[in-house]
Structures are given as C-alpha cells and as structure tokens.
Design goal:
Blueprint: E1 2-6, H1 10-21, E2 25-29, H2 32-41, E3 43-47, E4 52-54, E5 58-60, E6 69-74, H3 81-84, E7 92-100, H4 107-115, E8 121-133, E9 136-150, H5 157-168, E10 173-175, H6 180-201, H7 205-210, H8 212-231, H9 240-250, H10 258-265, H11 275-285, H12 290-306
Parallel strand pairs: 1-2, 1-6, 2-5, 3-9, 6-7, 9-10
Antiparallel strand pairs: 3-4, 8-9
C-alpha cells in the first residue's frame, strides 16, 4: 500500500512513521530544513511508546514528484486545509482516498467540496507530539489513537484494510467508530472548549479545572457545543460531558492546548476552525453560542496580528 503523508509534523510524522516502521510504502511531504534532514538522515521519532528511526525515508516537497498513491493522509493544521487542497491533485489516482486528521469539524467537508465525498474519509486522532527539530518528531505523552470511517458510516473494504494495516503497527490504538461524525464532534467538544477557554484566560488546565469560575466556564462552553451538535443532527451521548471533564481532571496540571500555545506565542492558530467553527455551525443550526462568540471575537485581534493583518504592541 502506497501512502502519502501531506504535512510531516507531530501527527503526520508519528502515524506515518509507525506505518513505515512495519514496511508500508510511505512518502513524507515536508519542506525546508525538516525535509532536508529527513532526506539526509531519515525521520527520527522520539516516543514514550518507543523510539525509532525511519531510515531511509522517502521525503519530497512537491506532490508532483510522488504521483498517485493508494491513500493520502492530510496532516496539516486545520486552517491550512483550504489552502493546500488544490495541491493534492497529483497524488490522486482513480481509487485514491483522502484521510484528514485535523482538529475541528470542517476539514472533511472542505476536501469533499474539491474532490467529491466518495474520495474522503472522516478521521481524527489524538497524541501530544510536535517537531522537536529538523527531522525529529517528539511524542511526549498520551497513548496515540486514530479513528476513521466512511462519511456515510457504511462498511467498506478500504476502511477495513486501513484498520488492519494500523493494527500491525505498535504504539497506537486504532478504531473505526459506528458513527464517525459523533466521534469527530466528541473530540471537537473537548478541544474547542479547552483551546478557547485556555487561550482567553492564558491559564493551564490545572487552573481552569480547579477554580470554580473557570470550571463553570468550561462546562458552559461545552454545553453550547453539545447543543449545536444536536441541532446539527449529531447525536452526542449525554455521557460526553462526564467523559470530557474526567479527561480534563486526569491530565497534568500544566497542560495547555495546541491552539492556546499558538495564540500565546503569537503564531497563526486554529481559532477559525475551533471556536469560530462553533459560531458558524450555531448560526446555521439556529443555536445561540454567546460564550464561544465572545472567545472567538476576543481572540480575533491576536489572530489577525499573527497573520500580519493587524499591527499593534502587546
């Protein structure tokens, strides 16, 4: 099976690396010093689930150098998906399917708008990982998981085949949920709540969960997302609340969300794809989302500053 990884960061580097480790034909698409290091020395993955090196590793900058593949994993940040979507065409053969692995709820639809729903799977994943240096991925915590399925939730040979491939890899858990949209929204509820409240308060999760005022804020933001999901036809189970709070209570007190870290560092973030997406989905479903709207609007000046659209001192 020939697999292209578009975006060899913490997600693409880890999951693509694990598949390459078991002998899958994986092509990493990267750029700059990261690309040069992978081409020269392989892809090094430092992981709490076991370190390994993919060497030699096939890595290129231009998708046209790769040609059609069997599967294409899109692992860029959510806000980059519309930008890179037109560049994916050289990787697509008649039966190529696309698996997006972004935070958020919009990536699969954005790709389906360009290439057709039949080409796209729904997907999500979870792990704490990042590029530690050129050619070096650090998986710092959490047992990595990946979940995927057809957008209409039908059984398919390609989903079964991909699951069997991942089941051969070590250091991860693979699942094909009965309803991929419920799974995507369950993660979205968690990550958009944590990211938004964390970014606007600038506080780590240990503070957010321990202060009555911010714990209540977490619960209220979750409730808005839950209501939008149900109004949009996504049957999130009631236990989603307890499960999400249990997750927040169980992670290290100094934990921060990736969007939160990007906002605080002055980098472009996934604000549009997280709290912005809640606001847009709420408007479409006729559900008011005042807290998510406040978070989104409060952070927009910083987001526009990070993108060079505004200039002001902070």
């Amino acid at each position: 099976m020939r697999i292209a990884i578009y975006g060899t960061g913490g997600v693409g580097g880890y999951f693509g690396g694990r598949l390459a480790q078991i002998g899958a034909d994986v092509i990493f698409i990267a750029r700059g010093a990261h690309l040069a290091a992978i081409q020269s020395h392989g892809l090094r993955v430092e992981s709490v689930e076991g370190d390994f090196v993919v060497q030699p590793a096939t890595a290129v900058a231009d998708p046209a150098q790769v040609g059609p593949v069997d599967a294409l994993f899109v692992c860029v940040k959510a806000w980059q998906v519309p930008e890179i979507a037109p560049r994916l065409e050289p990787l697509l053969g008649p039966d190529t399917y696309i698996l997006p692995l972004q935070n958020g709820i919009e990536s699969a639809g954005q790709l389906a708008d360009v290439y057709g729903q039949e080409r796209v799977l729904g997907g999500l994943c979870g792990l704490i990982s990042y590029i530690a240096g050129p050619g070096h991925i650090c998986h710092a915590g959490g047992l990595p998981f990946i979940k995927f399925g057809e957008l209409d939730n039908r059984p398919s040979e390609r989903v079964v085949h991909l699951r069997q491939l991942f089941e051969r890899a070590s250091g991860l858990v693979v699942e094909t949920p009965p309803d991929i949209h419920v799974a995507i929204w369950q993660k979205f509820l968690l990550i958009a709540t944590w990211s938004g409240v964390g970014a606007v308060t600038r506080a780590p999760i240990g503070i957010l969960r321990s202060q009555p005022e911010t714990r209540r804020l977490l619960e209220q933001v979750m409730q808005e997302i839950y209501d939008v999901a149900h109004a949009s036809g996504i049957a999130l189970p009631p236990e989603t609340f307890a499960q999400t709070l249990a997750f927040f209570d169980g992670i290290p007190a100094d934990g921060t969300a990736s969007m939160q870290r990007d906002v605080l560092a002055g980098r472009p973030s996934e604000l549009e794809s997280q709290n912005g997406a809640v606001v847009r989905a709420g408007l479409q479903a006729g559900v008011q989302t005042p807290l998510n709207e406040f978070i989104y609007h409060a952070l927009l000046p910083l987001e526009r500053r990070a993108r060079g659209e505004l200039s002001f001192p902070i």
